[in-house]
């Protein structure tokens, strides 16, 4: 158990394990510990968004996750015991991503897959191992750990990543504030087998004057997860709640008949964002840095996005291809998104659970009547998909973003634009710096990229590229996490040289 490593990851949830996988793929020596003695069997996170599946292509995970998951084909609204609207989720983003659907994949199964991939990569999750504290040294950190057998030891690491959840020991040791609040209502989650129109494998949400409840189909029919709220309870009462105590009216209004209860748990939901995501050689990712309501299925996916963002940057610095300043861009890019997400999900959840006449009219009248109309408006469908799928996320104002070419800015996600001549997402499966040109690349650019071992991918111009916002013959420098760093109308290698030099980055 004693020894050193490049990166010590604390917390073996999806965020921590994805970070460890990404680092290991880049040749980084990584350890991952978790205070729990066993992997979790309960899970609240369900949705795997399209952007996560895109990034999972770099780890060879997408196919397995899709095969083991369940595609939700529709989103349904109920009110006053009646089905009011259905919004089709089938191919909702068919021109935007290879993963134009909402995938349901329970977190416990998700974690088992990630842990098996880590084991195959030679990294074992060290269960029952607790971080007692750490000190920062000039060239790394000294972390004090207590193993499952009670013995204490020191791990010397170059960097420390706190992926250890809302009660993060890493965040506590960093001395970073975690401002925000706690929702008054208690959430519950239940895995059930049952029958009724809302047990058809789709997503169903009930809005009425009673407690909020949503049904997430876990398979084609008959199995679902219920997520709902109970009106304000004391902590003692909340801990003692049973499934029989939750609102049967809310569940019954969805037409759900519960035949078997497989699992039930209650929890409080917070809305908080850490004041900083970095302090020296320590970083926060996932719930350790931001927590919010489950509205929109964003939490786990945001943590996985943190992991990919931080992972390639740590790997570059450890390999000597970038200076320490690159690590500052992690907080610069991710903390703003976390704050906007917490604010958005807070407003959505507040509307969904608010009491009073105005809120009642919005939930039970306005939303159910508008939803069928919006479902037929292409712009509305695309906006909804881009927002929930996280494909809309960009880093335009970040320190690694420069230029505009066509409709795309530095900091934008590289759009999916497959043509008969090739799928531009195929090269993105390699987490490396690369240059894309759609049209023709000048010889000077080809020579410059070849001399620096910077992959250059040239795609013959096709109308699909124009539809995606790309500019013919322009140059797009793409980061290892598939975001555009530099967008330039002219495919001039001098622009690339300047971009790397200003930021002290190497193409190697």
Question: Which architecture of the largest domain per CATH?
Answer: 3-Layer(bba) Sandwich
Secondary structure tally, helices:
14
How many beta strands in the DSSP annotation?
25
Output the CATH homologous superfamily of the largest domain: FAD/NAD(P)-binding domain
Question: Can you tell me the CATH class of the largest domain?
Answer: Alpha Beta
Structural class: alpha+beta
Mean model confidence by pLDDT: 89
Annotated CATH topology of the largest domain: FAD/NAD(P)-binding domain
**In percent terms, what proportion of residues is strand?**
25-35%
Coarse shape: globular
Stretches where pLDDT falls below 50 for ≥5 residues? none
Sheet of most strands? 8 strands, mixed
Question: How many distinct folded domains?
Answer: 3
Radius of gyration: 24 Å
Gap from first CA to last CA? 33 Å
Helix content: 25-40%
Walk me through this protein's architecture:
This is 2-polyprenyl-6-methoxyphenol hydroxylase. Residues 5-344 form the FAD-binding domain. It holds the Pfam family FAD_binding_3. Its cofactor is FAD. A hairpin with a 6-residue loop joins strand 13 (203-206) and strand 14 (213-217). With 508 residues, the protein is an alpha+beta fold. The strands form five sheets. Strands 1, 2, 8, 9, 10, 11, 17 and 18 form an eight-stranded mixed sheet that branches. An eight-stranded mixed sheet has the order 6-5-13-14-15-12-16-19. A four-stranded mixed sheet has the order 23-22-24-25. The protein folds into three domains: 3-68 and 106-178 and 274-324, FAD/NAD(P)-binding domain (3-Layer(bba) Sandwich), CATH 3.50.50.60; 70-104 and 180-273 and 354-393, D-Amino Acid Oxidase, Chain A, domain 2 (2-Layer Sandwich), CATH 3.30.9; 404-502, 3-Layer(aba) Sandwich (Glutaredoxin), CATH 3.40.30. It has 14 helices and 25 strands. Helix 1 (14-25) runs parallel beside helix 4 (107-120), helix 1 packs parallel to helix 8 (299-318) and helix 8 packs antiparallel against helix 9.
